[in-house]
What we know:
Structural class of chain B: mainly beta
Distance between the termini of chain A: 37 Å
Low-confidence stretches of chain A: none
Number of strands of chain A: 11
Shape of chain A: globular
Radius of gyration of chain B: 13 Å
Largest interface: A-B, 21 and 21 residues
Oligomer: heterodimer
Largest sheet of chain B: 6 strands, mixed
Radius of gyration of chain A: 13 Å
Low-confidence stretches of chain B: none
Amino acid sequence: DAGVIQSPRHEVTEMGQEVTLRCKPISGHNSLFWYRQTMMRGLELLIYFNNNVPIDDSGMPEDRFSAKMPNASFSTLKIQPSEPRDSAVYFCASRNRDRTGELFFGEGSRLTVL
Amino acid sequence: AQSVTQLGSHVSVSEGALVLLRCNYSSSVPPYLFWYVQYPNQGLQLLLKYTTGATLVKGINGFEAEFKKSETSFHLTKPSAHMSDAAEYFCAVGSNYKLTFGKGTLLTVNP
């Protein structure tokens, strides 16, 4: 059974460029989360989708960040324009309907903005 | 509102020694509590969780944690550390849909 799949694993870009991170959740999971991990701030929840609908985007840093989930098997996190302070590891995680259940994490996308 | 405090960003033990990683939480509703482990360049994996019932929870790789409501704690223990336990460990508190993570504790195991 495939886990959560994220791409790209590594991205190096220059300031001002657009970055798109992709996530395929586990089949049958109806909740999807995007987290950002940095040394300074740890793991921060950016946005949460339930049944493809964004429920809580209060963690999205600013308007440069946007996320979509056009269907149950795909989500994107876009940064436009990117800045050096966006450098971090971005994790996607999914969960089934049980709100006490385990979050399954992808391996992350390491973003470096020069 | 909910929050997690992990005491000690770095814990170092000898192989075979007791592992104790501390976690205190704050939650306005009955919490669900989790411990996750992260190996280098990987995502987080669930070690164990507490939802309801027995307060001593056993997880994978010989780890266990005890939920103590009066102390708002959920400390992680393992009787005997192994070299393969070296990783970063995250405590998390959940309620409704949201999972809030602590800053993590890096566990080093010395031979």
